[in-house]
Amino acid sequence: MTLEEFKKWFMKFDTNNDGRISGAELREAIRSKGFGFSAWWKSIVALHQADKDRNGYIDEFEIENLVTFAQKVLGIKITTWQQHLDNVQKAVKGVLAVTSVSVLAVHFDNYNEQKLKLNPFMFFGQYFFIAYW
């Protein structure tokens, strides 16, 4: 998941919609990843690592502080959009991988060159390929 997707997922646990994540909300986020009793302790550690102003909440500016914790402790893989695009380009290398395609848009150009070209794009974590002639 990208950093933006991680932020959106994380803010789903802001149950009182105050724009911040409390310790209890953080514990629920960690529980949702399959951690049971240990979610209590992990939430304390995560809050301590991420809450730089020590107000007891993780706000929108502190969410990025959770990335290392989420990757190491929760096993969430967080990448940038550029890393996603690089991975797509490595996987494709001029060959259309059917298993990676969720949408295939075909566009015929005005010059009728009839040469298939691929351009990888990303949208909400899904790989989209635009094939054109």
TrEMBL record:
Keywords: Calcium
PROSITE patterns: EF_HAND_1, EF_HAND_2
Domain EF-hand: 1-36
Molecular function GO labels: calcium ion binding
InterPro entries linked to this entry: EF-hand-dom_pair, EF_Hand_1_Ca_BS, EF_hand_dom
Keyword Zinc in annotation: no
Full protein name: EF-hand domain-containing protein
Organism, scientific name: Oryza sativa subsp. indica
